[in-house]
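Lab channel / #folding
Pinned by the channel admin:
"Please post every new chain as: sequence first, then the structure tokens as a reply. Keep commentary short and put observations after the output so the thread stays searchable."

First post following the new format, from NK:
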Amino acid sequence: MKGIATFTALAAVAAFAVSAPAKAQEIRYSLWAQPGEAQYDGAVEFKRVVEEGSKGRLKVALYPGDQLGTPRELFAQLAVNTTQISASGDPGLKEIEYLALPYLMKGIKNYVAFMDTPYGQKLNEKLTKERRLRILGFMPRNPRQISANKVINTMADLKGLKLRSPERDYYVKSLAALGANPTPMAFGEVYTGLQTGIVDGQENPIETIYAQKFYEVQKCIAMVDYIDKPAYVVISEQFWSSLSADDQKLLQRANDASNAVIVAAMPKQQEQYIKEMKAAGITFTYPDKKEFVAATQSVRDELGLKSWGKEAYAEIVKIGQQDF
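Reply from TO:
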């Protein structure tokens, strides 16, 4: 009897083991955007598509607001596959990041078109080899605008203004070419810097100016669209190479679906943000961008030629100015 009971118990355990569902694989997805922003809504759509498409085998955990660290810290996590996906303004390779040179690209479709070229694919391979990560795709953002405590109607109004700049050479050179006095500063210090007068203004997409409440310590925003730069959706190569071809396609479809949500939401969202900031006392101006484009030509030429060489730079300019 004892033997029969033991056999029955073992059989039950075996049956449970066979019928027990496999544990879902978690995908940690870090992004700078906060709930309420179009880009966060896009990440939620990415999560939905992946989880439904994999029938629950893959689970996406979202970490908004840079909870998991700076881009540099995230690259270290991606390299060892403790985090799987990151969306930020840093792709991990200068030759890709320089696609955001002032007035070089008209929009996200131009970035996608370049990355689909043989040279774009070569740069992605270089990123994989050097950093153990790759570009999965892009996440749309609105163009970058300039805020200050004075009305900006022309480039002359920027002369000598201390504008906070991200700590990247192309931002610094671009703002200097526009006549401003660029002041590199960490993003977390910007609000206080504006509030205390350490800097006179800053540059960012409208959604960031609104989300970070920079309009509380600024009076004017100039819609100059001087850099049109999406976020780069970067994936761990170790994680990517562990996926089946079908799951790789699923993640790419999910990123496309994410972008569709963001692109649909951005115009209405920006309109609402502008309306609220106007109600809070912000003056918006719409300068003629021709002089801004001309003034930054030297920046595009210097860094473009240095980064890609004459032939590749010419091809990138051509792709960047296409209408899709």
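NK: The chain has a mean pLDDT of 93.
TO: also worth noting, Residues 245-279 form the longest helix (35 residues).
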